[in-house]
Amino acid sequence: MKAFWVCIYEKIDNTEKLMEYAVKAKTAIEKFSGKFLVRGGKNRTNEGINPPRIVVVEFPNYDSAVKCYDSKEYQEAHHILEGHVIRHHQIVEGS
Hints:
Number of strands: 4
Strand content: 25-35%
Shape: globular
Distance between the termini: 6 Å
Largest sheet: 4 strands, antiparallel
Helix content: 25-40%
Number of domains: 1
CATH topology: Alpha-Beta Plaits
Strand order of the largest sheet: 2-3-1-4
Order of helices and strands: EHEEHHE
Radius of gyration: 13 Å
């Protein structure tokens, strides 16, 4: 069964750091067969916070999604975001 990363950004303080992160994260995500389904774009908030950015990444299975997040490559990218964004990141299994 497929799995997804769902990232909802609450606050972005440094767009340059976000872009630096995105380049490194993309490499790690592709290594684990991840595919971007949503990366920013037009959205409408019906309930809750009004996020400046939403990202959804599809993985072939839950284990791949977890291994990617825990990988050295992704964690190096993730470290770039520290102090520059507030986001909620979930790994969800689904079809």
